[in-house]
Amino acid sequence: MNSTITQASRPIPDLRYKPTRSRNVFGIALTSIAGLFSLVAVLPLFLVLSYVLYKGASKLSLDLFFLEQPAPGLEVGGISNAIQGSIIVTLIASLLAIPIGIGGGVFLAEYSRNGWFAQFIRFGTNVLSGVPSIIAGVFIYSAIVSTRILFGHAYSAVAGGMALAVLMLPTVIKTTDEGLKLVPDDLRRAALGVGASRFVTTIRITLPKASRSIATGIVLSIARAAGETAPLIFTALYSPWWAEGIFNPVGSLSVLIFKFATMPYEVQNELAWAASFVLVAFILGLNLVARWINTFTSR
Amino acid sequence: MPIDPNDLYRLRRRPPSEKQLDTGFHWLTVLTASTVAIVLVLILAIVFHGSLESMGLYGWRFLVTSNWNPVDDEYGALTAIYGTMVTSLVSLLIAVPLGVGTAIFITERFIPRPLREMIGLMVELLAAIPSVVLGLWAIFVLEPALRPFLTWLHFTFKDIPLFSTQPLGPGMTPAILVLVVMILPIITAISRDSLNQVPIRLRQAAYGVGSTQWSAILHVILPASISGIVGGVMLALGRAMGETMAVTMIIGNSNNFSWSLLAPGNTIAAMLANQFGEADGSQVSSLMYAAFVLILLTLVVNILAQLIVKRLSLKY
Amino acid sequence: MTVSATTATPTTGEEICLSLENVSISYGGEEAVRNVYCAIPRGQVTAFIGPSGCGKSTVLRALNRMNDLIDNCTLSGRVVFDGADLYHPGVDPVEVRRRIGMVFQQPNPFPKSIYENIAFGARINGYTGDMDELVERSLRQAAVWDECKDKLNESGCSLSGGQQQRLCIARTIAIQPEVILMDEPCSALDPISTLKIEETMHELKKTFTIVIVTHNMQQAVRVSDRTAFFNAEAQEGGSGKVGYLVEFNETDKIFNSPTQQATYDYVSGRFG
C-alpha cells in the first residue's frame, strides 16, 4: 500500500512526548511529590519494627517466657506473668464478643436488613467503634469494678476482658454483617425452598458460606484487642505474679510495656522492649493468619 | 392434612419444638444486636451521671480554666481540651496530604502493580502496631532524635509563641508526630478504597478527551471520590482525639497551659489514663466531666463523618 | 483465512486517515487479534462488524491508545495516523487522544454540569475562544441542544440515556479531533435515541472521520460507507479465540456481494 500518494497534502503531526511542556512538568512534579509522600508513609513501619527487633530479639530466652517479672532492682526475671495475663484477658474478651457479635451480625443481615431498629443498631455500631478505648475502661470500672458486682471482686481479669469486649464488639458485628450480606440470596432461597427454617438456613447454609470472611475479621479484631492497653489499666489493673484465677488482677503485655517504659530502671526498660517484641510478633502473626485464611482456604 | 404413616419424612409437619427453636433463635439475635445499644446508653449514662457533681460545681468554667489541682480540689480542663484539639488537628494537617498522596500513588498507574500492593500492605501493617509500642518507641527513639531539631526551632523562632519554650523531653510535638503515624493508615486505606471505587468509565471518559494522568486525577477522579475521603478523614480525626496510650507516654502530662507546641501538654484521654486510677472524691467527678466532653467530641465527629459521606457523594 | 485482496488498496482518490499495518494485539501473552491490515479513509464512516469476541473493540481502542489503560496489553505492527506512527516509543498518548476522540458503549458523562462536561475537555485542550459559543455549537452538532439549553448548569447525569450519549458525542466534538471512534455507541440505548444518533453521524461525517464498532448489521448498512468484517477462530493450544480481519470493502459490496464465504455467512445471519 502506497501511502505517500495521499499524504502529501497534510503535514505529519508531531505526537512526541515533550517533557518540557508545562502540563508534563506539572505532572512529573506531582508524581514525585506523591512518591515522596508514599516513602514517608512507609518509613515509620521500618523504623519501629527494626528497633523493636533490635532491642527485643536480643532478650529472647527461655527465662523470658517462663519467669515472672523481676522485682525492681533485681536482674533475673521474665515476662511470663504478662504473657499469661494477656492470653487470659484476650480469651475472655473473645468469648464475650464473638458470640454476641455474630448474633448481632446475623440479626442485621438475616432478619432485618432495613428495618428502623436495624438501621439504629448499625448506626450505634458505628458510634461504638468510635468510642475511645480509655472510655471503655472508665465505663467498665464504674459499672463492674467499683460496684464490685462480680461476686464482690473489684479489679479482675474478667473486668478487663469485658472492657476489651466492648472494643471488639462493633468490629465483629460489622464483619459478620458484611460477610453474610455477600452470600447470594439464591442460596438462602434454595434452602428455604426445601423447607428449612430460618434457623437451620442460617446455621447450616449461610454462616458456613460466609465463614471465611467472618473468620478473617474476627482474627483481626482479636489481634487489635491483644494490643490494647487503656481499657485494662483500671479494670484488670496489673499483677506482677501469675494469675490467681480470673477474678483477680492480672498482668498483660501491653500494661507491662506501659509501666516499664516510664520506670527509671534499665532492666525494666529492656523488658519493655522484649515484651514489645513478643506482642508485635503475636499481632503480626495473627495478621498473617487472617490473610492466609482469606486467600488460601478454598471456599 | 392427616399424617400418612408411610411417609418417610418424619419432620414434614413441623413439631412445635422446632418452631420454638426458630423463634427463640430470632429473639436471641435481637438480644445480641441490642447489646450495642445497651452498652452505648450505659456508657453515656454512667459517665454523665459521674460528672454531674463536677458540672454542678464548675459549670462552663470547667472548659476554660486551666487550673487542675487535685491538692486544692480545683479543676479546670482547658489544657487538656486544648491539647486534644491541637494535637488532633495538627496531626490531621500532616497526615491528610501524606495519606491521600500515598493513596493516589498506589491506585494510579505510576509504578508496577506488585510494588503498589507492597506499599499498600506496609501501610496496613503499620496499623497493626499497638499504640503502647509506638509510645515506647517515641520515648526512646523519636523524641531524642527530634530534640536537636526542636531546640534549633526554639532558639531561632523564640519570639513566636508557638516555639516559645525550650524542649526538654516529652511534649506536644512528638505526640503530634506519633498521632500522624497512627492515623496515617486509616486515611490511606479509606482514600485508597474510595479512589478504587470510582468506576472505570469515568477514567475512560477523562482520558478519552485527551486528559493527562494528573488532570484526570485532580479534575475527575478525586472529585468523584471526595465523599469517601472526607469520611475517612473525619474518622481519623475521631481516632486521633481518643488516642490514649502513645500520647500519654510522650506528651508530658502537664496541666500548665502554654501556647508553645514545644512544651509538654495534655489531652483528655491522657489525663484520664494517668489520673483515673488513683483519683478519689471530686477529682473523679471532674475526670468524668472531662471524659464526657471527650465522648461528645468524638460522637459529634463520628456523626458528622457519616452525614458528610452521604451528602458529598457525587451521583454518577 | 486469507486476507481479501480488497483490504490492502483503497480506491484511488481517497485520502487515508488511519492505517493499520500488520497489527496484532495480545493481552498478557494471549493473542486477541492478529495480522490486521486496514486503511481507513478520511471523511467517511467506517464500520467494524463481526461476532462477539472477534476483537473489533480491541482494534478500535488501539487506534487512540486507549488500550494503554489495560494492564499487559501489547501491540505489534504499526498504526499510522496522517503519516505518524502512533506506537512509536516517544509518542505521548495524550497527544494522540486529543486528535482521535472516543465515544464509549456506556454513556459516561462527567459528574459535572452539562456546561462543564463540554468545557472541561475544551479547556484541557487549550481552547482560547468563546466557551459559551463552543458549548452551544457542540451541543447543536450532537442534536441535543434543545433538550439541554435550559439546564446547562444541571448535572450531566440527570439526562436520559440517549441524551447522555449525545452529550458525550458533543463533548468529543468540542475538542475538535480529526477522527471520532465510536464503540457500540447505541447498544445501551432505545431505538429512538439510536435513530437520533445515526442522524447525527450523517451530519458529523462532513467534518470528522468516523470509525464505529457495531453489533447491529442494519446499523452498519444505514450509516457506514465502508465496512470491515472481523471474525474469530479458535486458537490451538490457547484458551480463547483469536480475531482477524476477513474482508474490508465498501459497505454495499460487503453486504450484497461479499467475496469471502465467512462474510457471506455472517451477513446472511448464518452465525453471529
Which SSEs are present, and which pair or pack?
The complex is a heterotrimer of chains A (299), B (316) and C (272).
Chain A (H helix, E strand, L loop, with lengths): L3 H4 L14 H36 L4 H5 L13 H32 L4 H14 L3 H13 L11 H25 L3 H9 L4 H30 L2 H4 L19 H9 L4 H31 L3
Helix pairs in contact in A: 2-12, 4-7, 4-9, 4-11, 5-7, 6-7, 7-9, 8-9, 9-12, 11-12
Chain B lengths: L15 H43 L2 H4 L13 H30 L5 H16 L2 H26 L15 H25 L3 H9 L4 H30 L2 H6 L17 H8 L6 H31 L4
Chain C lengths: L15 E12 L2 E12 L3 E5 L6 H8 L9 E9 L2 E2 L7 H7 E4 L10 H11 L6 H11 L3 H4 L12 H14 L4 E5 L7 H14 L4 E5 L3 H7 L2 E9 L6 E10 H6 L4 H7 L5
Parallel strand pairs in C: 3-8, 3-9, 6-7, 7-8
Antiparallel strand pairs in C: 1-2, 1-4, 4-5, 9-10
Structure keywords:
heterotrimer, A: 299 residues, mainly alpha, MetI-like fold, disordered N terminus, B: 316 residues, 2 domains, 11 helices, 72% helix, 0% strand, flat
Explain what the structure shows.
The complex is a heterotrimer of chains A (299), B (316) and C (272). Chain A has 299 residues and is mainly alpha-helical. In chain A, 71% of the residues lie in helices and 0% in strands. Chain A has a domain at 84-251: Orthogonal Bundle (MetI-like fold). Chain A is built from twelve helices and no strands. In chain A, helix 11 packs antiparallel against helix 12 (266-296). Chain B is an all-alpha fold and 316 residues long. In chain B, 72% of the residues lie in helices and 0% in strands. Chain B contains eleven helices and no strands. In chain B, helix 3 (78-107) runs parallel beside helix 6 (172-196), helix 5 (131-156) crosses helix 6 (172-196) and helix 8 (213-242) packs antiparallel against helix 11. The longest helix of chain B has 43 residues, at 16-58. Chain B starts with 15 loop residues before the first helix and ends with a helix. The mean pLDDT of chain B is 88. Chain C has ten helices and ten strands. Chain C has helices spanning 56-63, 93-99, 114-124, 131-141, 145-148, 161-174, 191-204, 217-223, 251-256, 261-267; strands at residues 16-27, 30-41, 45-49, 73-81, 84-85, 100-103, 179-183, 209-213, 226-234, 241-250. In chain C, the strands form two sheets. In chain C, strands 6-7-8-3-9-10 form a six-stranded mixed beta sheet, with helices on both faces. In chain C, strands 2-1-4-5 form a four-stranded antiparallel beta sheet, covered by helices on one side. In chain C, strand 1 and strand 2 form a beta hairpin. Chain C is globular and about 55 Å long. Mean pLDDT of chain C is 88; it is low at 1-10. Chains in contact: A-B, A-C, B-C. At the A-B interface, helix 2, helix 4, helix 5, helix 6 and helix 7 of A face helix 1, helix 3, helix 4, helix 5 and helix 6 of B.
